[in-house]
Amino acid sequence: MSDTKVVVQQENKMGVQPIQKLLLTMSIPMMLSMLVQALYNIVDSVFVSRISDVNDYALRAVSLAFPIQSLMISFAGGTAVGMNAYISKSLGEKEFQKANDTAANGVFLEVMSYVAFFFVGLFFSRPFFQSQSPIPEVQEYGVTYLSICCMAGIGIFMQFTFERMLQSTGKTHYTMFTQLGGAITNLIFDPLLIFGLGPFPKLGVAGAAIATVMGQWVAGGLAIFFHVKFNREVIISFKGFRLQSALIKKIYAVGAPSIVMMSIGSVMTYGLNLILEAFGAAQTVFGVYFKLQSFIFMPIFGLNNGMVPIIAYNFGAKKRERVLKTLKTAIAYAMVIMILGVFAMEIFPEQLMGFFNPTPELLAQGVPALRIICLSFLLAGPCIITGSMFQALGKGTYSMIVSIARQLVVLLPAAYLLSLSGNVNLIWWAFPIAEFMSVAVTTFFFIRINKKIISRIGEES
Length: 461
Description:
Helix content: over 70%
Strand content: under 5%
Largest sheet: none
Order of helices and strands: HHHHHHHHHHHHHHHHHHH
Distance between the termini: 32 Å
Number of helices: 19
Radius of gyration: 22 Å
Structural class: mainly alpha
Shape: globular
């Protein structure tokens, strides 16, 4: 017990290590693990696209399931972000028991979120797909896939919870192994269960869903193991556990805007799928784009995950210059990643679409879509990083407002108006248009938060 006490009272590396080295040390494992996550998401769709060479119905069904899967991630990730930020802040303030209590309450909230999505999968999968597609094959593929992902989805909630606890104390390198374990599991069982290789049954889309949740279980199990084994700064105990409304409010002060912000993406995706329904393979194109763009955006989110606890810790420790330097460094790294993403989609769109066994219609619509949408990447990078900084400083509502304005106030209406032209290629311009607005609103809120919070953070002597 005495050894543990000595460890937790030492100055955490987030308060003393050089920012560039610290950000890279904390972010690179997360960026690599996010790249692995993006890779197996893409490979998952690559395998599904080969269920039929005649049509893209299976791939379309998996693409249409994305809003609900994204909603699950919104609740799992948003709650974990709120928990992570408050744990990091509590550690920076040397409030160690408060950090432990926050972790225990966070785990309970994640389990309750999973229970809610179990019933979503059980009762709402079929109405959800019927609203998006009149094609019976798409509906059946989709209901099968989504029901399994929701009802067996406890792994994704545990994965987010315990990975964020590791991140809150700077132990991001362990999350690389959790992500890798989940990815390898998914990659191995995808072809085995989809196509019935060896002793495994041929399950088609159901096999893809089962492989997905198996990967989540492995990742969640590894995250729990690493936390219990190595994370001595945050100790979870349910002996005498009670819900603490004050802590739950703190968690959701940061987490709820994050949940809403990510959920807005689900609403936008669902709305855009309804708009694209009249344009043949356009729904599938949109789904393929999301799979490909995850390979660009996942590293940005990994960078965010490394940045947020650094900013939250140094905000709690009253180190203003470290807060600002972390933000500037993260934006610079994000821009490099986004430039690479634009280059890839502008120069190699045919090759990228080719991974998904495209029909001629899918390829013809997909190439111009990638080239148009990727123009928004250069504006998106700084906005994503700055929005995460808002959350780390307890102003997640700013990020929420930016996201609502971008996706619901601008993107969806612009897409609908452009769809009236009858030209599907014009619809994709809604993405760059929305990103210009996002930059303007983000800049406004940054000026506000810099004046009211950042400039008033006292430097430690």
